[in-house]
Every structure is written in C-alpha cells, then in structure tokens.
C-alpha cells in the first residue's frame, strides 16, 4: 500500500485570453493560450477514515476546507467514477496566489485527481481524467497536462503548443482576490453583448512562443492590442479586472518602468505578470515591484513547459 502521494503542480497564466460573447449557459466561448509558470502548490493525499482537506501557506485562511473546495470535489468525483469511498486526507500547501487568476484552485483539483488515481491504483487513461477535470472547472484539464496549450470552448478543449525555450516572468500578487464570474460579468457590461467577434488564437503569439522569443512575444501582444511598445496584452478580461481594481494600473505602470518587456493581468486577475528578457532582469523587476508598494509581493518565475510532478510521500513518522 502506498503511504501517500505528493503532487507538485504549477500555476498557469493566459498569454492570450480572447473572450467571445456570453452564452446562454452562463459561460463564454474562449480562445486562450495557456502557459505554466514556476509557482507551485504541493498537494499530498494520504489514506484516512473520511475525506478531510487542510490548507497551509499564504492566504490559506481564504481557501474553503469543506466540500466546496475544488480538490474535495475532484476527490469525490473520482471516487464516484471508480466506485470507491473518498477516504483520503488532502493537504494543500499553497504557493500559487489564492483567487489570483492563476488557476490555483484548478491546479489543486488536478493534483487531487492525479494523486488519488495513483493512491487508488486506478486504471484511468488521461482522456478520462481530462473529462472529469472539465466537469470541475474550465482550467482543470490544462492543469492536468501543463506546458503550453491552446484552449478552445470554455478552455477545456486543448491542443498542446510548442514552447521554444524558457520564458522569464515576474508575478505580482495583489491584496485580496477577484471573483472570476464577477470579472466576466464586468467584461460583458463594458463591451455590451452585440458585435463581439468569435475568439481566435493570434498567430504572432503562437509563433513567438514556439521560438521562445520574449521580445517577439511582447511585440505580438502590442500588435494584438494596437498598443504602444510595451503596453500590449491579449487578455480581453484585463479592462474588466482594471475596472474592478483600478489600483492595478499602478502595478502595471511600475513593472513597465522597471524594464519589463510588457505586463498584463493574469486571467481574471488581480495578479499581474511581467515578461522580462532573462533571469537577472526578473530578479531586479521583482525587487523593484516589491519595494514599490503597488503589490503585496512580487516573485520571479520561469516558464519551461512544466506539468504536474507526481512523487510518493514519505511514510509519516
Ligand atoms: O469553469 P470555472 O469554474 O473556472 O468558471 C468560473 C466562472 O467563470 C463561471 O461560472 C463563469 O461565470 C465564468 N466563465 C465564463 N466562461 C468561461 C469560463 C468561465 O463565463 N469560458
């Protein structure tokens, strides 16, 4: 019997997030370019009498530990599929900002699925896990695979994308989260419902990613947004996040002033990410942003195409 399984699962950013008009089911059609970045949650599952969730790390008090926790829902959904009891303790050590637009909850759900599948020695192929993940949330399938991918539909229809080399980022965490549904509602309010074009991937973004070329990626984002150099982004939710949290303008301005190639809101926010040329600039921009008082913390993180990493937990002492 395996004593436990630990999954290290990375955060995601949306390098592009094109949002279509609202659908009757309350969702939006997306074309999004997902990319993992090196900030991680560690999720450990161990056998227990009943399903129990514990959480540690920054803002862990904001994460529910009842049945509404996405990792709890993932565990229950997998147990139902396998016809077993969800008798596990799930511990989540947070390193991904909570409610920050970096898929922290979805990453935990993906990790719980992978961990429980291993613990219960389930004979499940990846497509089956992806299906269970898609029912839990739009970002869960990508969190199961990681790397770089184009997401269509609600973001759950994935095609892996090539990533030509590591990209360097600075992740600036804001105080307090933003609700994803509230940001989508604000996006609809700002844009109106009519005349929204179908969401499509932007080829220069895909080309720059495939080349691992940070300056080309920044230029592609400027082109997408018809913005001055360094001010581009391809996130249709950014105006909505800025409308709900105007202080993020200051964070974006400071990061750009410090020499980032570009900066934008991650997903539904409020976390902002800055693309920088190399690891040395990442350290400098992170230091400057941390000192600026326009965010609660700023950390350098690299995208190197990582996915979740499964390892066995040591036997408890
Ligand atoms: O799928 P997920 O749980 O991440 O979605 C959270 C909320 O974000 C949805 O209830 C919906 O309001 C909004 N959403 C959306 N269109 C998408 C994905 C999410 O409107 N494609």
Proportion in helices: 25-40%
CATH class identity of the largest domain: Alpha Beta
Q: Strand portion, in percent? A: 25-35%
- Helices and strands, in order, run as EEEHEHHHEEEHHHHHEEHEE
Work out the helix count: 10
The secondary structure category is: alpha+beta
For the record, give the distance between the C-alpha atoms at the N and C termini, rounded to a whole number.
16 Å
Using only C-alpha atoms, the radius of gyration works out to: 19 Å
| Largest beta-sheet details | 7 strands, mixed
Instruction: Estimate the mean pLDDT confidence.
Output: 95
Task: Tell me which CATH architecture of the largest domain applies here.
Answer: 2-Layer Sandwich
Looking at the structure, what is the overall shape? globular
CATH topology name of the largest domain: Ribosomal Protein S5, domain 2
Bound molecule kinds, no repeats: cytidine-5'-monophosphate
What is the count of distinct domains? 2
Number of strands: 11
Low-confidence stretches: none
């Amino acid at each position: 019997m395996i004593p436990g399984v630990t999954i290290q699962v990375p955060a995601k950013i949306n390098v592009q997030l094109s949002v279509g008009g609202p659908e009757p089911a309350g969702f939006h059609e997306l074309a999004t370019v997902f990319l993992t970045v090196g900030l991680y949650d560690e999720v450990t599952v161990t056998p227990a009498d009943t399903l129990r969730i514990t959480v540690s790390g920054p803002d862990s008090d904001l994460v529910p530990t009842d049945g509404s926790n996405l990792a709890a829902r993932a565990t229950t959904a997998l147990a139902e599929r396998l016809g077993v009891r969800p008798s596990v303790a799930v511990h989540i050590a947070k390193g991904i900002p909570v409610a920050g637009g970096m898929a922290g909850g979805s990453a935990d759900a993906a990790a719980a699925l992978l961990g429980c599948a291993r613990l219960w020695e389930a004979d499940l192929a990846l497509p089956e896990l992806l299906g269970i993940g898609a029912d839990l949330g739009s970002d869960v399938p990508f969190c199961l695979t990681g790397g770089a991918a184009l997401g269509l539909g609600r973001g759950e229809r994935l095609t892996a994308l090539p990533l030509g080399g590591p990209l360097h980022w600075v992740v600036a965490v804001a105080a307090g989260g933003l609700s994803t549904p509230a940001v989508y509602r604000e996006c609809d309010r700002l844009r109106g419902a009519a005349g929204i074009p179908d969401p499509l991937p932007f080829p220069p973004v895909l080309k720059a990613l495939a080349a691992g070329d940070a300056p080309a990626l920044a230029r592609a984002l400027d082109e997408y947004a018809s913005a001055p150099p360094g001010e581009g982004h391809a996130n249709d939710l950014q105006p909505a996040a800025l409308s709900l949290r105007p202080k993020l303008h200051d964070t974006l301005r400071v990061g750009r002033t410090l020499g980032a190639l570009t900066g934008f809101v991650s997903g539904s926010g409020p976390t902002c990410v800055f693309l920088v040329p190399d690891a040395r600039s990442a350290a400098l921009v992170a230091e400057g942003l941390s000192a600026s008082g326009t965010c609660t913390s700023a950390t350098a993180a690299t995208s190197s195409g990582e996915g979740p990493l499964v390892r066995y937990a040591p036997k408890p002492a």
